[in-house]
Amino acid sequence: MGLERANVGVFIVVMICGCMQIGSGTVYKVGDSAGWTTIGKVDYKQWAATKTFKVNDVILFEYSSQFHNVMQVKHVHYKSCNASFPIATHTSGNDSITITRHGHHFFLCGVPGHCQAGQKVDINVLRLSSSLPPSSPPTALPTSSAIVPAPSSSKAAPFYALSWFSNHLWIVMAVVVALF
Ligand SMILES: [Cu+2]
To answer: What is the β-pairing status of strands 88-90 and 70-73?
Structure first.
C-alpha cells in the first residue's frame, strides 16, 4: 500500500470514528458557561432539570482544580453533603464522566462548605426504552406470504456493533495508527 493511499485510509477511518463519536452521546457541561463553582450561586438542580440525560452522554465538569473537585456519592451522602465516602473522585478540573447506566448519579464538591453552598448535582438518566411501548410482532397478513423482514433483530445488531465500536474508538484508532 502506497503512502498516499495509507494516508487516505487513516483519514477515512478518523472521519468515520469522529462521526460515530458525535453520534454516541451528548456532552453536557455542568453549569453551562459558569461551570462547576460556588461563585454566582448556580442552581445545579435547575440546570439538570432542563436536560434529558441518556446513557452514553458525557457529563463535563470544568473548574479550577485548586479550589474544587468532583465526587460521585450515594444518595444519602448527597443529601447530607457528606464527602467522606465517595464512590469516585475526580480532580483534574476538566473531568468528563460518561454515563453508562440509567438512574441517578449524584455528584458534589468535596471541598468543605461547597456542597452546603449548593455545589452538588443530581444527574438523573431516564430509562428511555421502558417509556416506549413494547415491540409487538407485525400483524400477519392473512393471504400474503411475502417476506417481511423482522424489524427488531435487524435493527438491534448494527446498533450494538456501532455502540461497541464507538465505546472502543480509541483502541480501534490506536490499532489503525500503529498499522499505518
Ligand atoms: Cu468546590
So the answer is: antiparallel
- For ligand 1, the distance from its centroid to the CA atom of residue 163, given in whole angstroms, is 34
35: CA distance to ligand 1 center in Å? 11
Rg (CA), the chain: 22
Q: Which residue, 12, 57, 7, 11, is CA-closest to 30?
A: 57
Q: What separation in Å is there between the alpha carbon of 57 and the centre of ligand 1? A: 23
Tell me: the pLDDT tens digits for 1-17? 455 555 555 444 444 44
Question: Cell digits for 110?
Answer: 468535596
pLDDT tens for each residue of 98-155: 999 999 999 999 999 999 999 999 999 988 654 444 444 444 444 444 444 444 444 4
Q: How far is the CA of 102 from the centre of ligand 1 (A)?
A: 26
What residues does 106 pair with on adjacent strands?
A: 73, 122
Asked if 111 and 69 count as a contact pair (C-beta separation under 8 A), the reply is: yes
